[in-house]
Every structure is written in C-alpha cells, then in structure tokens.
Amino acid sequence: MALTGITLLCLLAGAQSKVVAPPREDIVEFPFYFYEGRFIIIKASLGNAPAENFIFDTGCDATIAIDYKYAEEIKLKPEKNSSFEMRGVESDLPSEFAITDISFKETNPLRSLTLRRVKGVISDYTKNFGREFREKVKIKGLIGVGALFAKKVVLINYNTQTIRIGDDIDKFHYPGMLEIKMNSRRGSGLLSVKAAVNIEPESTYVIDTGAYCSGFPRPTKGDVDFGKLKPDDFQHFKTLTIGENTFTSSKALLLVPIRFEFGLIGADVLSEMSEKKIIILDYKAKNLYVPYPVLVKN
C-alpha cells in the first residue's frame, strides 16, 4: 500500500441543470462515502457475510485484497501463496483465495451486482492505515481493478457520491468531454499517464483512488518515514499538467514525496479535475475522460 497504506453514465439536461442518472438496464450503480475527501468507501459482502466497508482502489491490480484478521473472522481459507501488483509495485502477499461471490450494495434495491468465484488475496496491509482510521472506518479490504474493471467503463461522481459501471463509453457521453490517453502499468490493469505536478519534472503517475493523497516521485531506499519528513518535503497542489492540458484547484490539497519511480494521482486530485466532480475511466480503451474540466486559462 503506497503512502500510509491507503474511487455510470450521467446526463446534463441544460447548462444549469442537475446531473441525473438515466434509467439504463445495462449500467450498475452503487453509492460510496468520500471519507475526508481522500478515500472512496463502498459496501460489499463476501459470500454470506454481512456487508462491510472496503476502499475502492484503482491502484490495486487484484479484484479484492482482504485484511488477514477479517479473513479469519469469516473463516476464509487460503489456497496458495501468490503475489499481485499494487500501484505498479510487486508485493508478495501471504495467500490467494477463491470465494463464492462479492455482492455490492446498489442504489437500486431491485438490482444487484455480484462477482462469482472471485480470486483475491489476504494481507496485513491495514496495519499501515493508522489506528484511528482503522477503528473509525473499520475497513476490511480493498476492491481493486481485477475482474470488476476488466474492459469496463467506470464513472466516479464525487458530487453525488455514486459509482457507475458499464461496457460502452458511448453510454457515458458528455458534450465537450476532455479525453486523455492512458497507459497500462506494466501490463497490469492499473492505468498511468505522463504528467507533471507544480514545478516537478514530468514523470509517470498511476491513477490511484486508494492512495492517502496524491504525490510526486522521490525514489529513496526503503519506505518513506512520514514521521521524519520535514515541512519542506511537502507541497500544496497548484497544477497538474497532462500533455497540453493543465488542471488546477482552489483547495489546499497536500502532495507528498513517494519512494517509487512514479507518482500517484489520488481521489483528492481526481475529484477536483472536473467542475461537476465527475471522472470516467475507460479500461477498455485505456482513456481518462474529464467532463467540464477545470483548466488553467492561457
């Protein structure tokens, strides 16, 4: 887990109208809680277990990663040792498991989204979240890109705090929508892009809704010890430049140095890229779409 260890279709009816969801049968929608403007928290049920809190994490290549204490609690049996990629880093984790299903709490009670026989991993990553966060939010794991996002289009609406998933970008159309071409991170499901924050040099940034906050690359040996970072090590977000487009925000978002050779664009910055606070990730075409982008005027 990077940093401390911790993101569908809408229509606009007129320039001043509310963003509303069309009644499409081929798009699923479920709510989330945008905790402290940083973490996308969703409800999911594993097998017959009650619904619990999970982080919606586009920086995790597994379909799901579960805390080992929660795995013991619901008597989830490991099958074999495995590893997977999280934020472009190979992480060795204790075990792999298969479960019957993962069900998501949808906004429409007559519908349900269930993934069958999902492969996932068990880890002790939640120890990095901090005790206060663990006790308050009671996170049981991560929902990553894996089977959920495979060749799908994902719309995250930070304003209505809903996520929509469908198969075709044409069902997620906005007039004047900005398209940004992305890359697959080392053949995984993670999306990345060449970008620059503030006056930092251009580098690769992974789209990571599970990051504690966005950050710029500062390769070092070993983990970053946040307790030893000095005020000069941090920056406030001013601009994000991708190609010819430069995004900005009026919020005092904090950026931190990251020990990897790549940076992270987290849910905090993603939520500020659009006036309507909507971003669309197309995992099929490997594109990021930003309706109503907040750009620096030249």
SSE map:
Blueprint: E1 11-12, E2 19-20, E3 28-31, E4 33-35, E5 39-46, E6 52-56, E7 64-67, H1 68-73, E8 80-86, E9 89-98, E10 101-104, E11 113-116, E12 119-123, H2 131-137, E13 139-143, H3 146-149, E14 153-157, E15 162-166, E16 178-181, E17 183-184, E18 191-197, E19 203-207, E20 215-217, E21 235-236, E22 239-242, E23 245-248, E24 254-258, E25 263-265, H4 267-270, E26 278-282, E27 287-290
Parallel strand pairs: 6-13, 7-12, 19-25, 20-24
Antiparallel strand pairs: 1-2, 3-15, 4-5, 5-6, 5-10, 7-13, 8-9, 9-12, 10-11, 14-15, 14-26, 16-27, 17-18, 18-19, 18-22, 21-24, 22-23, 26-27
Q: Please, could you describe this protein's structure?
A:
It contains 4 helices and 27 strands. It has 298 residues and is mostly beta strands. It folds into 2 domains: 11-154, Beta Barrel (Cathepsin D, subunit A, domain 1), CATH 2.40.70; 176-290, Cathepsin D, subunit A, domain 1 (Beta Barrel), CATH 2.40.70.10. The strands form 5 sheets. Strands 4, 5, 6, 7, 8, 9, 10, 11, 12 and 13 form a 10-stranded mixed sheet that branches. It starts with 10 loop residues before the first strand and ends in an 8-residue tail after the last strand. Mean pLDDT is 78; it is low at 1-23 and 88-92.
